[in-house]
What we know:
The protein has helices spanning 10-16, 55-62; strands spanning 18-21, 43-46, 52-53. It is an alpha+beta fold. The model has no long low-confidence stretch (mean pLDDT 82). The two termini are 16 Å apart. β2 and β3 form a beta hairpin. The chain has a 3-stranded antiparallel beta sheet. It has one domain (1-77): Zinc/RING finger domain, C3HC4 (zinc finger) (Herpes Virus-1, 2-Layer Sandwich). Residues 31, 33-34, 36, 53-54, 57 line the site of one zinc ion. Keywords: Metal-binding, Zinc, Zinc-finger. One of its GO terms (molecular function) is zinc ion binding. Pfam families: zf-RING_2. One of its GO terms (cellular component) is nucleus. One of its GO terms (biological process) is ubiquitin-dependent protein catabolic process.
Amino acid sequence: MTERFEPTSLEWVERCVKTQKFTANDQGEVCAICTHEFEEGEDASTLKCKHQFHPHCVKEWFKKKAICPVCRASARY
Ligand SMILES: [Zn+2]
Ligand SMILES: [Zn+2]
């Protein structure tokens, strides 16, 4: 375990997070950072682990930690 959870740059976030329009799936996704549900057609950022967050929420979060707030998987590629 040599993973480091250091502050990240916005440039890094852009590379590791895919942002696209949210489309409802059978899980009824909620942004775990602000705990608000996604609205159909809203922008959603998807991490490597498939968890989805609001783009502005995830950018704030990644200033502190480069891990998924839900499953704690490393968000780095
Ligand atoms: Zn959010
Ligand atoms: Zn996750």
